[in-house]
Specification:
The chain has helices at about 10-15, 30-40, 40-45, 50-65, 80-85, 100-110, 150-160, 195-205; strands at about 70-75, 90-95, 115, 135-140, 160-170, 175-185, 185-190, 210-215, 225-235. It has about 240 residues and is an alpha/beta fold. The strands form 2 sheets. The chain has a 7-stranded mixed beta sheet, sandwiched between helices. A two-stranded antiparallel ribbon has the order 6-7. It binds S-adenosylmethionine. S-adenosylmethionine binds near residues 53 and 139. This is Class I SAM-dependent DNA methyltransferase.
Length: about 240
């Protein structure tokens, strides 16, 4: 594993400082949840090609012990990720910023537990404590954060994972920071990285990257051009 900061004392202090990093950040979610409230089930129609996501979810299922607790971060409609994880017998908790997405996910995956919450609320000693997980999936949700917040979200994910826990991440490959784009009839702000940079950001957050893949996705008749989807399979080191 490579990392930019290997000082364990610094990491320890950060894990016990709830506001570390967020203190210097103005968290602005204006319009982001509302956009997904309006999109609802149209999201799955616009992005029918879920091959990469299904493969990454299957990696979690195949690699985690039976009955493991798994978090789907920015779960959207719950399809396919929460549904597949739950069908495999894992204990699934989903979180999303959009009320409508949480309602759809509850409808689609009644065997899982869903919460209306912000990724930032799950930070160490933050306002929501959902316990610890053996696995976390964050598919196309961290891209809705400004770049300055993405390392903090990765630190939150590390905090939520048990030692040796697995993390499946997907992002769209793009050199953007909190950039407004038209999206399914509305506007959202998105961030992204080129693939080498994404890997560096994830490794700097003290994850081992154990696998990487990419898929070209052509959204169905939407106002979204073809995208390159990057998938990283990661592990939180033991202890
Ligand atoms: C592009 S969709 C991806 C949905 C799902 N993970 C999938 O891949 O099908 C992004 C999702 O992240 C949610 N989201 C955006 N910002 C969030 C935040 N700060 N905290 C929690 N969820 C967020 C959105 O509401 C939306 O459902």
């Amino acid at each position: 594993m490579s990392s930019t900061s290997g000082d364990p004392r610094q990491e320890h202090d950060q894990d016990h400082d709830p506001e570390h990093g967020y203190r210097h950040l103005r968290v602005d979610r204006t319009g982001q949840a509302e956009a997904f409230d309006r999109i609802g089930g149209r999201y799955d129609e616009a992005f029918p090609d879920k091959e990469g996501q299904i493969a990454a979810t299957e990696w979690l299922v195949a690699s985690l012990p039976a009955g493991s607790r798994v978090l789907d971060l920015g779960c959207g409609t719950g399809v396919p990720t929460a549904r597949l994880l739950s069908q495999a017998g894992l204990e699934v908790v989903g979180v999303d910023l959009s009320d409508v997405m949480v309602a759809l996910a509850r409808e689609h995956v009644p065997t899982a537990e869903f919460h209306h919450a912000d990724i930032a609320d799950l930070r160490p000693a933050g306002p929501r404590d959902l316990g610890r997980f053996q696995g976390v999936a964050a598919f196309f949700s961290l891209l809705m954060l400004p770049r300055a917040e993405i390392p903090l979200a990765l630190r939150t994910i590390r905090h939520l994972l048990a030692p040796g826990g697995l993390f499946a991440l997907s992002m769209v490959e793009a050199d953007l920071d909190d950039f407004p784009i038209p999206f399914l009839g509305g506007r959202i702000r998105v961030s992204g990285y080129r693939r080498e940079e994404l890997r560096a950001v994830v490794e700097a957050a003290h994850f081992d990257v154990v696998g990487e893949s990419s898929w070209t996705c052509v959204p169905a008749g939407a106002d979204v051009p073809p995208e390159e989807h990057l998938f990283l399979r990661c592990r939180k080191p033991d202890a």
